[in-house]
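Thread: magnesium ion complex, take 2
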Amino acid sequence: MRGTLRGEQYTQVDNHDPFAAPVWRSPVHRTPEPVIWLVQAVRLVFRLAWFLIRHPLPGLAAAVVAVTWAKAGWPGPAAVALAAIAALAGLRAWQPDRFTRWVTVPARSRWRWWCYRRHWHPVMTIAGLAAAYRGKVMLPELGKVTAGRCADRAAVRLVSGQSPDLLADRSANLAHGFGVISCRVRTGPPGSVVLELVRKDALAEPIGALAIPAVPDLRALPVGRREDGAVLTVRLHGTHLLIAGATGSGKGSWLWGLVRAMTPAMHAGLVKVHACDPKLMELAYGRGLFERSGSYAAGPEPIAALLEDDVKAMQERATRFAGRQRDHIPTAEDPFVVVLVDEVAFLTAYQADRKLRDRTLAALATLTTQGRAVGYSVVAALQDPRKEVLNIRNLFPDKIALRLDEPSQADLVLGDGARDRGAVCDEISADPATGAGVGFVRLEADPDPVRVRAAFVSDDDIRAMTAACAIPATAGAPALTGGEAA
Ligand SMILES: Nc1ncnc2c1ncn2[C@@H]1O[C@H](COP(=O)(O)OP(=O)(O)OP(=O)(O)O)[C@@H](O)[C@H]1O
Ligand SMILES: [Mg+2]
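Output below.
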């Protein structure tokens, strides 16, 4: 039998049979109608207030229209609309940047949000990202969308238990579903990701050679552009750089871009470039420049000798620095040395002379393991990033992946998971006009690979650089910035 029963909780159903089993039922309380109206009115007021707080502009606009209409009839709102149009036109004419920031970007972002919202449900469901839980279908939630010139960034809240990799796996489905060129999944706060939906290839046009900086910053040498339009800078001081890309992927423009950005410092004797050019093609154009501010070697034997000389000089410098100086600052006595090696795989894997191969590999391994802090940096380019070809691949802290033949190669260069995070090097166009020099890098502040393109340094630009270097150094040599090793 039940415990204590109180009359207001239970009511016995009226039954005239004294032997019938008792039947109990909950009482029905009728809410008075005015209370229902009051609760609904309070709820409406709260929702309205919340809407006005979150969207003050539509609220303000509605209030202005209502007040002017009440005061002056239809000419009132018409005058307000004309004044608003004139104000926007004025802003656009006088302050185009602010107009873009305050009007164009928010309006475009809102529009793009609406476009994604419209297709969100079917695309998520068909891509297999709708999760079922206790009979309910749960979808990732679309958050704020920021529209850029060529790509949109959409914040997405994941369903509990979903991982960013799940979305990365379906990135092709999402791109096709939303009608964009590609979709990359970027890291967001826990439980969220950012989808980068690319509408237009911002790097489709070749970029002309960048202006040579008057004072080169060896930690930020301008060599190209990022997909978001910002200048791409590459650090050389305190690191080593590996550039991997299939034949014709534009490795040359990266090597030359770095040399170009350092030209004033080479001219001033603060940077020496030791160029190793086994193919006798890529760097031969600047032979004069290198011989004036460094050295140039072409065959396997001279290259091995050059690298071994560098190892000796580096070790001698390390002995001098020991206990005296922890970081290297480029000076005329101890310049920053960049060892530039094109087609490094030919030297370390393909050349027939085993002795030379071992000598080259040993010298490169020593330079990459010991050179960083004493002002030696190795910049190497190669076509095939497999370990068998360059087993010291991991001694290069910074890497750039250009067009590669196989999907798995992006992970070999940029680290595991790089392709899932958007480094689709195998999808870069083989047409030099649209794809040469295009690649992916991992920037220091961002774990996700960023799509970039090197500026194209033409043969004429190289000749001009070499000619400029032929002018004798003046007393006012540029001081270098970023002279401390990381
Ligand atoms: N950044 C760039 N923008 C536009 N075109 C480029 C760029 N870099 C290179 N190219 C063009 O692409 C072609 C191939 O470039 P490059 O010789 O540098 O490739 P590579 O990767 O060095 O090839 P290989 O491994 O065969 O030496 C060249 O014709 C060059 O004109
Ligand atoms: Mg080349």
